[in-house]
């Protein structure tokens, strides 16, 4: 076999490195599609978010909405979201949007309109809708009450309790309950007439109740965060066309 010259070896090495670099670049770019292909991209967006594709193209990942949220509900996505990295979302189970702002601060802070400024239209602030995903585990449906801390002593989630101080959120861990019949999802919902408890039978002695979500629900996630059952009985479904399932 003919021995290659140093120049030829260098050329081959350069070519090989070029192929490797190109492959790495293509691989890195394709990683952005993984969350999309695996349906990981569906996040609960802040109030007023545009439809997902338009929201992703409008959001400049500036973090202004994160900084002004009074209950620190909005966080920025990490690398697992691929192309959505750095885009704001809400993990309602960890920290819900309590929707107690007279005017959602995140909408006012958004510089691009990715969060709609027309807050007079309910459909433009709706984030999603509540779904009862584990009805058999719901305490109310079992006719049970609840006593103690909704999420335990170590839970850091915040809520603005109207009977404490509307303007100053406190830890849910600092607010004990003693309820004959569990109605936390209704009791702490910030939206009037969004959710109610309905009897499960015509028997007046039947203590069982089932939560029912109504049209005013904006999907803020408060019911998901406050649910004392682990894992939660109720979750938020993102506000996109073609949502599956029925409202509770």
What gap, in angstroms, lies between the N and C termini?
76 Å
Provide the helix percentage: 10-25%
The mean pLDDT is 83
How many helices? The count is 7
Secondary-structure-based class equals: alpha+beta
Bulk shape: elongated
What does this structure look like?
- The structure is a single chain.
- The chain has 248 residues and is of the alpha+beta class.
- It has 2 domains: 41-124, Alpha-Beta Plaits; 128-238, no CATH class.
- The chain has helices spanning 6-31, 34-37, 52-58, 64-68, 105-109, 184-187, 222-226; strands at 74-76, 88-90, 128-132, 146-148, 158-159, 170-171, 177-179, 195-199, 209-213, 234-238.
- The longest helix has 26 residues, at 6-31.
- The radius of gyration is 24 Å and the shape is elongated.
- The protein starts with 5 loop residues before the first helix and ends in a 10-residue tail after the last strand.
- Mean pLDDT is 83; it is low at 28-33, 35-40 and 241-248.
Task: Sum this structure up briefly.
By secondary structure, the chain is α+β, with helices and mostly antiparallel strands.
């Amino acid at each position: 076999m003919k021995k290659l010259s140093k120049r030829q070896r260098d050329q081959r090495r350069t070519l090989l490195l070029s192929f490797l670099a190109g492959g790495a670049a293509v691989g890195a770019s394709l990683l952005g599609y993984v969350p999309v292909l695996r349906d990981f991209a569906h996040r609960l967006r802040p109030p007023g978010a545009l439809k997902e594709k338009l929201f992703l193209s409008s959001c400049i990942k500036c973090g202004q909405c994160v900084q002004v949220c009074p209950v620190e509900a909005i966080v920025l996505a990490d690398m697992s979201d691929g192309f959505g990295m750095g885009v704001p979302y809400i993990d309602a189970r960890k920290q819900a949007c309590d929707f107690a702002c007279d005017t959602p601060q995140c909408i006012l802070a958004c510089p691009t309109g990715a969060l709609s400024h027309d807050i007079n239209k309910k459909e433009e602030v709706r984030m999603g809708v509540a779904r009862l995903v584990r009805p058999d585990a719901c305490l109310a449906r079992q006719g049970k009450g609840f006593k103690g801390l909704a999420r335990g002593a170590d839970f850091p989630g915040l809520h603005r309790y109207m009977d404490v101080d509307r303007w100053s959120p406190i830890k849910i861990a600092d607010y004990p309950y003693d309820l004959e019949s569990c109605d936390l999802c209704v009791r702490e919902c910030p939206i009037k007439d969004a959710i109610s408890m309905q009897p499960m039978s015509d028997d007046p002695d039947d203590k069982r109740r089932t939560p029912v979500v109504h049209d005013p629900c904006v999907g803020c996630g408060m019911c998901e965060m406050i649910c004392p059952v682990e894992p939660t009985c109720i979750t938020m479904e993102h506000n996109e066309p073609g949502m599956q399932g029925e409202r509770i």
